[in-house]
Amino acid sequence: MREKPAQLVPLDVTNSSGGSREPLFGLDADSLSRLLVAAGEPAFRGKQMAEAMYRQWLSEIPEISTLPVTLREKFVAEGWKIGRPVIARAFQSVDGTERYLIEFEGSTPKGKSAEAVWMPEGDGGEAGDETDTEAKDWSRATVCISSQVGCAVNCQFCLTAKLGLQRNLTAGEIAGQVVAVLERQSVRVGRDRENLVFMGMGEPFLNYDNFMAAVRLLVREVGLSPRRMTVSTSGIVPGIERFALEPTNVRPKLAISLNAPNNTIRDEIMPINRKWPISEIIAAVRRVPLRPRERITFEYVLLGGVTDRPEHAREVARLVRRSGLPAKVNLIAWNPGPGIAYAMPSPEAVAAFHKLLIEEGIPVYIRQPRGRDIFAACGQLKRTLEA
Ligand code: SF4
């Protein structure tokens, strides 16, 4: 039987810069099926398209050999594109870490790119959670991705804050960073067990819908495990409350970027604390139903002379104990950045803080700085071509 010529019904999927269509990357299999059905094609073509974009990582419509040639040509003629984000620049650290400048299809120059990081050895931040009860042969590789271009939260120790918020990333732009990095690193999904952290540029819970849509894409379409994903928030309470309602089989683990032992210091270094103080954050976190063996992570940046004293360690231990949460603390020695007037903690102060928390019975890990020489380490991400 001769193939019927494809009839695409033009849909109003345009971007804000006018005219051209939104990328297909970011639509899940059901949405793609609806698009194809609207074009007079059978629904299973949508599933084929999803398979091609999210499992085979094809990046151009003409490459999708499971679709009829006429349909591919029609799509291209009508201006559709897969439009997956691309790695425009890569910076390599002496420790094997890579930082990427990732560009997005059709964006205005202002919000054109964000950053992602690949850490082949991880940084120790994944230690001590539910995943380390699994087989020991898994790779510790970690991908760190951005949820926004810039950030509005204004943490005083963070280089990204200097950009201010430029824009939210779409679900396809968030998930696309992951696929771009996995493809570059030849990761075999389902065989290599990499970790994924939403800890790059931006506050994921201030871009909640797109962040969670990206997670669903990564779990359902790309095939990644949500148990190997961690989202870090500065403590956006309404976001934590929404997160508590997500089904546990598609949500990442939760990390709270605590960084201070009390509200006085936190108000100063994270002004967002004046809106949602520590007690409110913890009350919201308590409402998140946890999976068996799952723990909440408290991320704690040690700023020399500001948050790294022994009395701060004891206060953090009390705070974690009183929270009643199954929790661990990840310590991060602050990474310097241009124009930020904090000091790195001394190695002795980091060791003493770590020891005190252990003595207090708190599970604690030190995150190793990765990619400092290329500004890829925690708090250092800022779109820059200088490195
Ligand atoms: S630490 Fe995170 S939440 Fe705070 S300003 Fe930087 S990117 Fe935003």
Backbone shape: elongated
Query: What is the residue-averaged pLDDT?
Result: 89
Rg computed from alpha carbons, rounded to a whole number of angstroms: 22 Å
Oligomer: single chain
**Broad structural category:** alpha/beta
Which stretches are poorly predicted, pLDDT < 50 over at least 5 residues? 1-18, 133-138
Structure write-up:
The protein has 387 residues and is an alpha/beta fold. Helix content is 28%, strand content 16%. It is built from 10 helices and 12 strands. α9 links the parallel β10 and β11. α1 crosses α2, α4 crosses α5 and α6 packs parallel to α8. The longest helix is centred in the middle third of the chain and has 15 residues. The termini are far apart. The chain binds iron/sulfur cluster.
Features:
ten-stranded mixed beta sheet, single chain, two-stranded antiparallel sheet, binds iron/sulfur cluster, alpha/beta, 387 residues
